[in-house]
Amino acid sequence: MPPIIRGTTIEDKLSSIEHILQSFQRRLSTKVVGLLPPIALLGDRHVLGFDGVVFSAVCPVYGKLVRVCLRVGAFSAQTIACTLVHESRAATYTEQLNIKERTTVIPLDVLVSPADYFSITMFPVDGVTDVSVALLIVPTLTGQVRQESFALDQFLLLEERENAEAIR
Q: Disulfide-capable partner of 150 in 37, 79, 99, 155 (CB 3.0 to 4.6 Å)?
């Protein structure tokens, strides 16, 4: 087997090593990946109205609703009836819950799309104060995310250009 490093002088050997490293660099596929973190839809009501609605929101992305968190500051009844409604173009998903504690976490696995509507109502409303709600949506890469493949050097060049434009 012939030697990998060629040359008789140190300069020739270093040149051979540099050539080998350059060929490896061309073969490597170094890519930069951007991640989409989960999105939280947040809301709170200090005083509930007569209709019992404590939260309503519209979904901004394709994804999956994975968790609903509720925190009630105070309530006088032993149990609060809570209704979670998810309206999409295809169907309406409703879940009934009985809340007995100030903090409730509800794990879900519901596919969502842009413009899907969420609402949460509670009854009885007498004595219920300071309701905070968080819906956690994990976005998917379907339909709205631009996917591009960059080598690391292209990414660094793009970043330098954007930084130079930001300074202007």
A: 155
The answer to whether the pTM exceeds 0.70 is: no
CATH number for 43: 2.60.120.40
Query: For residue range 14-69, what is the model confidence (pLDDT) as tens digits?
Result: 888 888 887 777 666 555 566 778 999 999 988 778 888 999 999 988 899 999 99
Q: In which domain, by residue range, is 100 found? A: 39-139
Contact present, 41 and 137 (Cβ < 8 Å): yes
Tally of domains in the chain = 1
- Residue 76: pLDDT band by 50, 70, 90 thresholds? confident
Task: Give the other-Cβ count within 10 Å of 82's Cβ.
Answer: 22
